[in-house]
Amino acid sequence: MAPPHENTVCIFDTTLRDGEQSPGIALNAHEKIEIARQLERLGVDIIEAGFAISSQGELEGVRAVSQAVECVVASLSRTGEEDVDAAIESLRDARNPRVHVFIATSDIHLQHKLRMTREQVLEGARFAVARAKAFCSDVEFSCEDATRSDPDFMAQVVRAAIAAGATTINIPDTVGYTVPAEYAAILRGLYDRVPELEGVVLSVHCHDDLGMAVANSIAGVEAGARQVECTINGIGERAGNASLEEIVMLLATRRPHYNMETNIVTQEIVRSSRLVSRLTGYPVQPNKAIVGRNAFAHEAGIHQHGVLAHRRTYEIMDAESVGLHGSDIVLGKHSGRHALRQALADLGFTIEGDDLKRAFVRFKELADRKGKITSLDLEAIASDSLREREEAYRLASVAITTRTGEQAQAEVTVAGEDGEQTATAQGDGPVDAVFGAINRILGIPVTLVEYSIGAVTGGADALGEVRVVVELAGRTFSSQAVSTDITEASAEAYLRACAHAKAATEPEQELIGV
Amino acid sequence: MAPPHENTVCIFDTTLRDGEQSPGIALNAHEKIEIARQLERLGVDIIEAGFAISSQGELEGVRAVSQAVECVVASLSRTGEEDVDAAIESLRDARNPRVHVFIATSDIHLQHKLRMTREQVLEGARFAVARAKAFCSDVEFSCEDATRSDPDFMAQVVRAAIAAGATTINIPDTVGYTVPAEYAAILRGLYDRVPELEGVVLSVHCHDDLGMAVANSIAGVEAGARQVECTINGIGERAGNASLEEIVMLLATRRPHYNMETNIVTQEIVRSSRLVSRLTGYPVQPNKAIVGRNAFAHEAGIHQHGVLAHRRTYEIMDAESVGLHGSDIVLGKHSGRHALRQALADLGFTIEGDDLKRAFVRFKELADRKGKITSLDLEAIASDSLREREEAYRLASVAITTRTGEQAQAEVTVAGEDGEQTATAQGDGPVDAVFGAINRILGIPVTLVEYSIGAVTGGADALGEVRVVVELAGRTFSSQAVSTDITEASAEAYLRACAHAKAATEPEQELIGV
Known about the structure:
The first copy, chain A, is α/β, with parallel strands linked by helices and 514 residues long. The first copy, chain A, is 40% helix and 20% strand.
């Protein structure tokens, strides 16, 4: 029953696949590359980059990530021939490709989703793993909804997958239903039923619907799993996946207890969290473990007590260990393009050509206003330059007047493929008026679903980051924009979200898995 | 070793005490009452309302809660005579008072925080429990930093506390360091060492620094605990406390597994979450289990698969069970004050007199703009009326002009005790200019720490809710305001936060515990 693997847990990051399936997240290839590069700096062992069959854009996203990083890149696939071939196609350029095949093994999924017999599932698993194996030696197989599956049937499928060449077997708690003791028992039962499991890597993949994703993942590790599938900030379907930073810091902080290590460079955790939060538009709540704003903060009063005298009275981790207070690169208004490029490179952004040109313009504007530019400001500018490059519409100008008791007036000019268009509108406040004017210009019936603003850094001259989610025909589209002027950022973010919605008049089929 | 208690877990909610100790949260007595009333509707067994000795305002907050609810109200206290007496004083009017005494039992806290010997700690526990017991029969005793304490010494202290009259013994993981198996072993070891523990209620109190608060709490229940201390949305010191909604829904969803129940009315969970988020200014991330916006959401593509055909393919809980789609009260612009009062009462708000008058004015304004007013709108209006009543300053008017490429201009008029004052300012965008004008009027050097806007409901006519956190002399002050016009809401929220900061020129001593 005891697993033969060593004391290292592989971190399989699925931020770009399961995380990206969260409502409203739509990363373009450039954004996927930036996140993948940061994940590589973070030291993850495997990056799951997408679900290639789901759309051409998705396939190209996986390919772009494959070209950008050296670590293992996984591409998800169902068991059909076309599915597997799309995954293979997306990994052609990967230095270390992994095809990740999955099929549900629970009766509820067989009956209501797949409408397949157990024999068909078994055959599908065999076929897909073998087909993937012909392309690359590294093949992972997942039993979707494993925790609600008949253990004997699941064991049969796992044996078949290993026989066909699978080198990693993943037992996901797809619906976030299991609890630690139960999950450990399922995994131990599988070891008992499938002796061949000793020769491959067992993996866990947990969802947080009942708040147990991290605890279940760790129970899995204790039962023999040596790969944990997780995401930055715990994003993912519904309540999300197990949070990478919690898994890693739990194993690191309680090292003597678990006697397990990971290859993660923990000092890159906070930056990875910020980048993912910014590019996905998913905020991190202040009381989120490890990466929340308060995770290392104590209310003022406590300083009268023990913390200053002896930090370990209340702190079990060092804020430096997760990179909370990294060296703060500061540029001034006289810094040139070379200095900016170097500073961005230090932050991990590879920005060249037109992107660098745009980032430099933004940098200069901001430096004129703020004087000093911190690394947080630079991260925001760099992310925004990445977003901007593929836009069909550009905000040319915004003018607003408003006074208490009167309707706000906005005049907006947008530059598109057919030249500039200007519209005016009234509204309850300036932002409402601006959105109304943009609606007139684009002429699509979007509904505003969410609108939020956060400050990138503190202080009155802070960059404001606006996140907008709009809905069109049942689909949601999100975007972000940053500016020291929040009405400008609001207009920019709304325009981008609406442009995405407009571009998606022919919605592509979207799929989920695991 | 097996505990004698039945299969009911008491829910001890500490949102108003440990939750309220989060940086930037400062609830006034009215806000505490509203939350306490909602907690009572939610069915919590015990409400910890505050830490009476920490300030006069805190003591009065506990008293106000004591007067407002029928359930057990706990007041926290260290072991000193004045501490205990303040707790007792705060509970004079409580129908079911509980004094909650705590003292640290770990050597690290004894040495670095308390500077006390073990004998002194033991004596302190005895003294304080006995003194509390003379006032009320219901006394809880907590060993602060229990999970890092010497088990034998902790057992000694627990025996002394029980001998002195404690009826609940709480074993907190104050620093969020423990893991489930270890925590269960600590509790089982305590049962072995202290046979008298069988005659009292064992309680758990877990922090989420490593993401294990819920798993640890449940491990505690499995080891015999029948009280769980937790907070709405998991707010609290640092990464927060165990999240009430996760504990409760885990026990409810996995009822056959744990065979434990709570007295919680789960249909009140979502509303409780919204109220606490709104009044504390602490947002809930979209992927938060149970109460996050996405917790019950599936990405669009999935509908092509199983969910519509058979919800249980991906859903393990019913959204109705947590009150996600409660009956949506809708009022129109012809609804009168009586209808508003009734609708607010249905939502659980007891709003009378001037508060009702103000709420009615807000309601009419909004009804004129939106036509239909939903329960979410009403909740926002009601919360805002509660906030407004104690303000020393009132926003009289705001006027703004801004155009791309030029500085924004703002003119703000504020009514205070000394009459009206008007100031103008320029800024990077309208909000910056408005804040500048308010700074000129109030004349205090606050720093803007955080600024965020969320929409109360979807749609272009949504109420925007602005949250502002400012810092003055090392302390943070937060406030919120709602309006369909976000510049107006921004001005209002900023003015309130600055007014709080100004009022607190003499900072009171603040304490933390457990």
